[in-house]
C-alpha cells in the first residue's frame, strides 16, 4: 500500500546516495519531495514573432527542422545554428558558446527555445533550450544545492507525482476549501510543479500557502489545548475586595485595560495554568494591569513574582507599586544583586514563609535559590528581554504558577501569531485618554544646536528631558558620543539653572536608584543616559527625548526610547540626531518620524530585517515557511490561525470522518520545538 510517508528511496532512480543528498534539502519522504515547491517559474508562454520587437525576450515551442551545425571560431568560441518550425513558419536559431547544447539539439526534436529576437536578421539568439516542455508554459525552478541538482529534482518530482498522485489526500476540511475557493491537494501539488500558465501557478500557491499556515497553526493550537488541560491553581479571590482596590486607582482604566484585566482574571480563576502574553505599546499602561492581577492573587492567599530585565526597572516597580498597594495585604520584597548576605537571607526567609507575597527582582528571582511558599502568579515584564530558558525556569517555580508575560512592541503581530501562537494573547490597543502623539523630528548632526535651543525652551517651561548616547566609553572604532563627555558638556551648557544627571550601566545600584529618584522628584531636569533607560522607566513629567547617533539603534529600540516620553498630558517630543550612512538607516529615521504606532514600527522593522532577526533566530521560533511569507501574507496567516483555533475548539472535531487526514497529520507532526 503506497503512502506519502514512504521514504524517497522507494522512488525509481533514488539510490542510497541520492537519498542521502536529498536529506540536505530536508527531503526524506515522498511527501517531503512532493511538497518541495519551486521558488519561481520560467515563463514559457510562447511569443508571437510577427509582432516581436528587436531585442525582445521571446519563447517559442517548435520542432527542429534542419540538421544543427556547430562551428568553432576564435579561442573556445562556438556557434550552434539550426531552423525551427513554429506552426507553419520557420525561424533561424543560433546559440553562441554553449557547445553542450549540441547533444539536445537534434533533427526532429520538439523543443522550447528562449532567447532574444534579432529583428534585422529575423533570428533568435538563444539563451535556453529545453526539450519536452510543450505541454506546459511554466517551468519550475527549484531551490537546489551542490548535492542535488535542479534537473534531478525536476525528474524525481515528476516520477513521484506520477506514482503517488492517486494517494494524495486532501487535508483541509471541505468547508474551508469552499469558503476560500481553494484547490484540492492533488491539484494544488500538480499545479505547483507543473502549472499550465501563470494563473494556475498563482492559484496553487494560494492554496499551498494557506495549507502551510493552517497546518502550522493547527499544531500550535493543539499544544495550547494540551497545556490548558494541565493542572494549575484555581485562584479564587474575593471579587468585591478586588473591585474596592480598583476604585483606589487614581485614574479611570481605559476600555482596553478593563478588557485585558477581565481576560487575565478569568484565567486566574480557571483550574489550568495560564500562559498569557500581554501586549501593549509603550505607555499603554501595562503595569497597573499587572498590579490588579497581583492583588487578585494576594487576596486569594497566593504569592506573586514580578521579574524585570534591569535593576533600575525592578526598583522603580517596587517603589511605584508600594504606593499603589497602600492599604492592601500586598507586602513587597525587592530582591536585588546589591543586597548583603544578611539582608538577602532575611528576604529569602520571608519569601519562604509567605510573609512577603510580592517578590520583585531581576533574573536573580530564578537564578538564586528562591523557595516560594505558594507562588500563584509569575509576571515577566518586558519579556522579550529574557531568554527562553529564563522564562521557562520561572514557570517551573511553585506548583504550576499562572504566567503573564508582558511586552511592548518588539513582537509584531506576525511573530505573535507564529512563535507565540500557543499562548493566549491580550492586547491593549488604546492609550490612556488625553495623550498627545509624540512629535518626532530628525536632525542632522550639524543641526544639533537647534536641538539644544529647543531643549532650553522646553526646560524654561518646566519640562524634564532625557538625552541618550549610545556607548558609555570612548571607543576608537565607533565614532559615537560618549555619555560621560556628553554629561560634562550638558553640565556646562545648562548649569547652574538646571540640574544634569548621569545614568549608565556601570554605576552601582544605589547610585542608579538615587539618580532615578532625583529625576522623579524633579531635582534633576536633564537626564543624560545610555540605553539603560530603554525599558520601562516611567516619569510622566519628562517630555523630551533627545537621541544622539540615532541611526545606531534598531527601530524597536528607538521606539522603546521614545516611549519614555509622552506618558502624561503634555505635548512630548522626540529628537533624533543622525547622519545615517545606509539606506536602511534612512528608512529607520523616516519610520520614526512617520508613525507613533508601535505595531507599525515593529512591522516595518520586520520588513527591514526579516523575521528571523527581530528576536534573534533561536528565540523567535518563527519557522521557515516554504510557501507562505508571514510578512507579505499576514492577513492569510491571521485567518489561518483563527480557522485552526475554531476547528480545534469544536467538540469532537477529531472524530469526524472529514478531519481524519488532519488528525493523522497531527500525530505525525507533533511540534517538538516547544517555545518555552
Ligand atoms: P507601559 O505599558 O509602557 O509599561 P506604564 O504601565 O508604565 O506603561 O504606564 C505609563 C503611564 O501611564 C504611567 O505613568 C501610568 O501611571 C499611566 N497610566 C496607566 N494607565 C492609565 C490610565 N488608564 N489613565 C491615565 N494614566 C494611566
Ligand atoms: Mg512597562
TrEMBL record:
Protein name (Swiss-Prot/TrEMBL): ATP-dependent DNA helicase RecG
Pfam families: DEAD (PF00270), Helicase_C (PF00271), RecG_dom3_C (PF19833), RecG_wedge (PF17191)
Catalysed reaction, written as an equation: Couples ATP hydrolysis with the unwinding of duplex DNA by translocating in the 3'-5' direction; ATP + H2O = ADP + phosphate + H(+)
Functional summary from the UniProt entry: Plays a critical role in recombination and DNA repair. Helps process Holliday junction intermediates to mature products by catalyzing branch migration. Has replication fork regression activity, unwinds stalled or blocked replication forks to make a HJ that can be resolved. Has a DNA unwinding activity characteristic of a DNA helicase with 3'-5' polarity.
First-tier enzyme category under EC: isomerase
Entry's EC annotation: 5.6.2.4
BP GO terms, sorted: DNA recombination; DNA repair
GO molecular function, one term: ATP binding
Native source species: Limosilactobacillus coleohominis 101-4-CHN
Taxonomic lineage: Bacteria, Bacillati, Bacillota, Bacilli, Lactobacillales
Sequence similarity: Belongs to the helicase family. RecG subfamily.
Domain Helicase ATP-binding positions: 267-428
Ranges for domain Helicase C-terminal: 447-612
Domain of life where this protein originates: Bacteria
UniProt entry keywords in alphabetical sequence: ATP-binding, DNA damage, DNA recombination, DNA repair, DNA-binding, Helicase, Hydrolase, Isomerase, Nucleotide-binding
Amino acid at each position: 500500500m503506497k503512502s506519502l510517508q514512504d521514504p524517497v528511496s522507494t522512488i525509481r532512480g533514488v539510490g542510497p546516495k541520492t537519498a542521502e543528498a536529498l536529506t540536505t534539502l530536508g527531503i526524506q519522504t515522498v511527501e517531503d519531495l512532493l511538497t518541495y515547491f519551486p521558488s519561481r517559474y520560467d515563463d514559457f508562454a510562447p511569443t508571437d514573432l510577427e509582432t516581436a520587437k528587436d531585442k525582445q525576450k521571446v519563447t517559442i515551442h517548435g520542432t527542429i527542422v534542419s540538421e544543427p551545425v556547430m562551428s568553432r571560431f576564435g579561442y573556445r568560441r562556438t556557434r550552434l545554428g539550426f531552423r525551427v518550425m513554429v506552426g507553419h513558419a520557420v525561424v533561424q536559431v543560433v546559440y553562441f558558446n554553449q557547445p553542450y547544447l549540441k547533444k539536445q539539439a537534434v533533427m526532429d526534436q520538439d523543443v522550447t527555445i528562449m532567447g532574444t529576437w534579432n529583428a534585422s536578421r529575423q533570428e533568435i539568439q538563444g539563451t535556453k533550450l529545453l526539450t519536452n516542455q510543450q505541454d506546459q508554459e511554466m517551468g519550475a525552478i527549484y531551490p537546489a544545492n551542490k548535492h542535488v541538482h535542479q534537473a534531478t529534482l525536476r525528474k524525481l518530482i515528476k516520477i513521484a507525482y506520477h506514482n503517488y498522485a492517486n494517494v494524495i489526500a486532501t487535508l483541509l476540511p471541505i468547508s474551508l476549501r469552499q469558503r476560500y475557493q481553494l484547490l484540492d491537494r492533488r491539484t494544488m501539488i500538480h499545479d505547483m510543479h507543473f502549472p499550465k500558465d501563470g494563473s494556475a501557478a498563482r492559484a496553487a500557491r494560494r492554496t499551498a500557502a494557506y495549507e502551510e499556515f493552517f497546518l502550522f497553526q493547527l499544531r500550535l493550537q493543539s499544544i495550547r489545548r494540551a497545556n490548558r488541560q494541565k493542572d494549575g491553581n484555581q485562584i479564587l479571590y474575593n471579587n468585591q475586595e478586588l473591585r474596592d482596590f480598583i476604585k483606589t486607582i487614581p485614574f479611570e482604566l481605559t476600555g482596553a485595560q478593563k478588557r485585558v484585566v477581565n481576560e487575565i482574571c478569568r484565567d486566574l480563576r480557571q483550574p489550568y495554568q495560564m500562559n498569557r502574553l500581554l501586549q501593549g505599546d509603550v505607555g499603554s499602561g501595562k503595569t497597573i494591569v499587572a498590579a490588579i492581577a497581583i492583588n487578585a492573587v494576594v487576596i486569594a492567599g497566593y504569592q506573586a513574582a514580578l521579574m524585570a530585565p534591569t535593576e533600575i526597572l525592578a526598583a522603580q516597580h517596587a517603589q511605584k507599586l508600594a504606593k499603589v498597594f497602600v492599604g492592601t495585604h500586598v507586602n513587597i520584597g525587592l530582591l536585588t544583586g546589591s543586597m548583603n548576605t544578611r539582608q538577602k537571607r532575611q528576604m529569602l526567609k520571608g519569601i519562604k514563609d509567605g510573609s512577603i507575597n510580592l517578590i520583585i527582582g531581576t533574573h536573580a528571582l530564578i537564578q538564586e535559590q528562591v523557595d516560594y511558599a505558594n507562588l500563584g502568579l509569575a509576571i515577566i515584564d518586558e519579556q522579550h528581554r529574557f531568554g527562553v530558558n529564563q522564562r521557562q525556569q520561572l514557570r517551573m517555580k511553585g506548583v504550576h504558577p499562572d504566567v503573564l508575560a508582558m511586552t511592548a512592541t518588539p513582537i509584531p503581530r506576525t511573530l505573535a501569531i507564529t512563535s507565540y501562537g500557543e499562548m493566549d494573547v491580550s492586547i491593549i490597543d488604546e492609550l490612556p485618554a488625553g495623550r498627545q502623539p509624540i512629535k518626532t523630528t530628525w536632525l542632522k548632526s550639524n543641526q544639533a544646536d537647534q536641538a539644544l535651543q529647543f531643549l532650553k525652551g522646553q526646560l524654561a517651561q518646566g519640562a524634564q528631558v532625557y538625552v541618550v548616547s549610545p556607548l558609555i566609553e570612548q571607543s576608537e572604532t565607533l565614532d559615537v558620543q560618549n555619555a560621560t563627555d556628553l554629561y560634562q558638556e550638558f553640565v556646562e551648557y545648562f548649569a547652574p539653572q538646571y540640574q544634569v544627571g548621569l545614568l549608565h550601566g556601570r554605576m552601582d545600584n544605589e547610585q542608579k536608584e538615587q539618580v532615578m529618584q532625583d529625576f522623579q522628584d524633579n531635582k534633576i531636569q536633564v537626564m543624560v543616559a545610555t540605553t539603560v533607560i530603554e525599558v520601562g522607566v516611567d516619569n510622566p513629567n519628562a517630555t523630551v527625548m533627545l537621541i544622539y547617533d540615532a541611526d545606531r539603534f534598531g527601530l524597536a529600540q528607538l521606539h522603546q526610547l521614545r516611549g519614555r516620553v509622552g506618558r502624561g498630558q503634555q505635548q512630548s517630543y522626540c529628537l533624533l540626531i543622525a547622519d545615517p550612512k545606509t539606506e536602511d538607516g534612512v528608512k529607520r529615521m523616516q519610520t520614526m518620524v512617520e508613525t507613533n504606532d508601535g505595531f507599525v514600527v515593529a512591522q516595518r522593522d520586520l520588513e527591514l530585517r526579516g523575521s528571523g532577526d527581530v528576536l534573534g533566530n533561536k528565540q523567535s521560533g518563527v519557522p521557515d515557511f516554504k510557501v507562505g511569507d508571514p510578512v507579505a501574507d499576514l492577513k492569510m496567516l491571521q485567518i489561518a490561525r483563527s480557522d485552526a483555533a475554531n476547528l480545534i475548539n469544536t467538540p469532537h472535531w477529531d472524530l469526524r470522518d472529514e478531519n481524519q487526514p488532519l488528525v493523522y497529520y497531527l500525530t505525525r507532526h507533533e511540534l517538538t520545538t516547544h517555545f518555552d
